[in-house]
Structure formats: structure tokens, C-alpha cells
Amino acid sequence: MIIYYKKKRLKYQLISGLAILVFGISILILDTSTGIYSIWILFGLLQIGTWFYQRKYQYLYIDEESLTKNALSPSSIKFSELKAIWKYKNSFTLETNTTKIKIDKDLMEDESLYKLTDFINQIELKSQQA
């Protein structure tokens, strides 16, 4: 199962990256004596690179054995090692003895949030029965 980022969030990230990049290029064209343009161009490219990565890899991947949160350094949790599930208003936190993953509800699409909530409720029921 894949938990997707909000499309609106990805769209704004791309637009802001392009705007920052255009601003940096326009500074380069208008005034090449200052080096500030390189910082703007770098930030624009980093923003666009982040958009590309998040669009390609999405927020969470869930299979039968584990949950993986994609980031610059992806973190993974195995369901067999799961010790606690904390439910908050805007997030979930999954804990094992060594790992803790915080899942922000505001970052995902509504349909993905419903799927994840149902999945986490099933995990919790399984752990209570065992």
C-alpha cells in the first residue's frame, strides 16, 4: 500500500521551486557582480529536487512486514517489533525498542489517510488479541 502526499502540497512545492529558480536567474541576468544569485539558484534547484523525490517515492510504503517512511534517509519499522502506537490529533507515532516514526496526517491525501487509519486500527487490534 502506498500513502500519497497531498497533490496540492506537491504542486505548491514545485511552483515555489520554479519561482525561486527564476528569481535567481533574473538576478544573474541583471547583476552578475554579486554572487547572491547562486544561492537563489541552488535553493530553487533543491526545492525542485525535493519535489521530484517526493513525487516519485511518495510518503509511506506499507507491505505485509513493514512500514517505510521515505525521506532523505528512509526509516523503516517492522510490524513484528512494534511496541506502541500513539494516536494524536495531527499525527501517529509508531515505536519499537530502537526506532520511532512520526507520521504527519497533514501531509497525506484524504483517501490515503483513511486507508492508513484503518490499517493502524487493524494492527492495534491484532496486538491486543495477541
Structural account:
This protein is of the alpha+beta class. It folds into two domains: 2-57, no CATH class; 69-129. Helix content is 51%, strand content 21%. The strands form two sheets. The protein has a four-stranded antiparallel sheet with strand order 1-2-3-4, covered by helices on one side. Strand 5 (84-87) and strand 6 form a beta hairpin. This is YcxB-like protein domain-containing protein. Keywords: Membrane, Transmembrane, Transmembrane helix. The chain crosses the membrane at residues 12-30, 36-53. It comes from Salegentibacter salinarum.
Structural class: alpha+beta
- Biggest sheet, strands in spatial order? 1-2-3-4
**Fraction in beta strands:** 15-25%
Domain module tally: 2
CA-CA gap between termini: 24 Å
| Major β-sheet annotation | 4 strands, antiparallel
Count of DSSP helices?
3
Rounded mean pLDDT score: 90
- SSE order: EHHEEEEEEH
C-alpha-based Rg, rounded: 19 Å
The general outline is: elongated
β-strand number: 7
Which percent range fits the helix content?
A: 40-55%
Uncertain runs are none
Protein name: YcxB-like protein domain-containing protein
Keywords: Membrane, Transmembrane, Transmembrane helix
Organism: Salegentibacter salinarum
Give the arrangement of secondary structure elements.
Elements: E1 2-3, H1 7-30, H2 36-57, E2 60-62, E3 66-69, E4 75-78, E5 84-87, E6 91-95, E7 100-104, H3 110-129
